[in-house]
Amino acid sequence: MLTDYQKYRFYEFLPGLSIWLTLILGIVFSIFKPLWMIYFIIVFDVYWVLKVVNFVFYLLVAWRRFHKIRKINWKEALYHEIPDYDSKQHLVFLTVYNEEWGVVEDALKSLEMSIYDKNKFTIIIAGEARKEEHCKSIFVKVKENFGFAFDHILFTLHPVDLPDENPGKGSNLFYSEQIVKEYVDGKGWKYEDVIVTVFDIDTICHESYFAYLTYLYCISPDPTRTSFQPVALYNNNMWESPSVLRVMAFGTTFWMMTSLARQDALVTFSSHSMSFTALVKAGFHEKRIVSEDSRIFYQCLLAYEGNYNVTPMYIPVSMDTVRDDNWWKSITNLYKQQRRWAWGVEHVPYLIWEFKKHPNIPLWKKIKWVFVEWEGKWSWSLAAIIITILGRLPLWLADDSIRQSVIFLNAPHMLEKLMSLAMVGLFLSAFFSLPLLPKPKKVQPKYLYIIMLLQWALLPLSMIFVSAIPSIEAVTRLMFGKYLGFDVSQKKRK
């Protein structure tokens, strides 16, 4: 009889097993059954082209909405359409570790420049006792520069080595949220009137973010059963970042935009907002994991028996790439960031385990969310490798008898045409990346804009070395119980 621990470890083993079986069987079949592998590659490439078509369609939809929403005066919309909007209170969490003061200052300045009433803002600066001296110096500067900019600023210091937690952003949030709950209770605020926003410390929000958020919250049929997800841009330090970082940053933005437009598989990511009611009902952020930003969605999904979703916000929040002063260090930071994001594979065993406790959640919904997480990490780990390497392996290894077959003779042409169709997504991404570039701090030579287009030629290599490989490492670590700690992304600006 298996123990609960052994059962859960078995669930953790499954995603990695599916990925390594695909890789191993792909090589075996390329050697011993190359025709079978050729058929698989053709089917997979058709599947991938369909995914690209889906990506292009929803990116165009999201792009149109993105530009439309930013033109609306949301302060006026609130004033004229939502009579009781000023009953809402905003809690904004900013977690601090070892970031430079300039990064913290810019985040707070963006909040200060919000067109929404700052008297409705309570800012929580959540520091780490592991960096106590640094965090306390940040606290002092926040008081000096922003002490009277908002209704209230709370400072918390997450103690070192608390039991049963994984040190990182999730455990920091969990600790500070206990303190904030006491603060909210002391104020006598209704939980349903309190909106929580969790920003990464480098987040610079659009001036209309909170007005738009409040509008969406007020018109939502059930605002306590939804999170609110903006468009994540990584362009604060875009001009100073290496090309590989820029390409991967834009790729993340476009993936987010298509997810917003589709909505059917939309999960919270990075900076987002939600009701304080939902946060309390879900038991606050999970303190033992790395992927707290997406896990809080699944906690709410379970707490509300499957009746929870994410509302798209077609408005940007700007963050930093993981740039460092050294090029190689920047690439290393990117690798670690991608590995940390791919560690979201830990949701697969969590969902399989927790869904058994919730018979009221429809079976189709359980299958859907397990598939979304599992297939997402499988594609992330393997798509680029299958297309660029495994797809060619049977063509290289087939013997003479196979080389005379019709399917073998036509396969290169079929694959070439399929991949040509798939290039549409690449060209569209390159084209859309230019309008998203921030205004440069100084006049940039025109040839740099051409480089911004040409850099997309790096995408195939980037998808393998700083996307697929760190993803494979993440699922393999989970497979063998080599659990990942929280790597704080180093972000530097010139």
From TrEMBL:
Annotated SUPFAM superfamilies: Nucleotide-diphospho-sugar transferases
Segments traversing the membrane: 12-32, 38-61, 378-398, 418-437, 449-469
The entry's keywords: Membrane, Transmembrane, Transmembrane helix
Gene3D superfamilies listed in its UniProt record: Spore Coat Polysaccharide Biosynthesis Protein SpsA, Chain A
Keyword Transmembrane helix: yes
Signal sequence bounds: none
Protein name: Glycosyltransferase 2-like domain-containing protein
Provenance organism: Candidatus Magasanikbacteria bacterium CG1_02_32_51
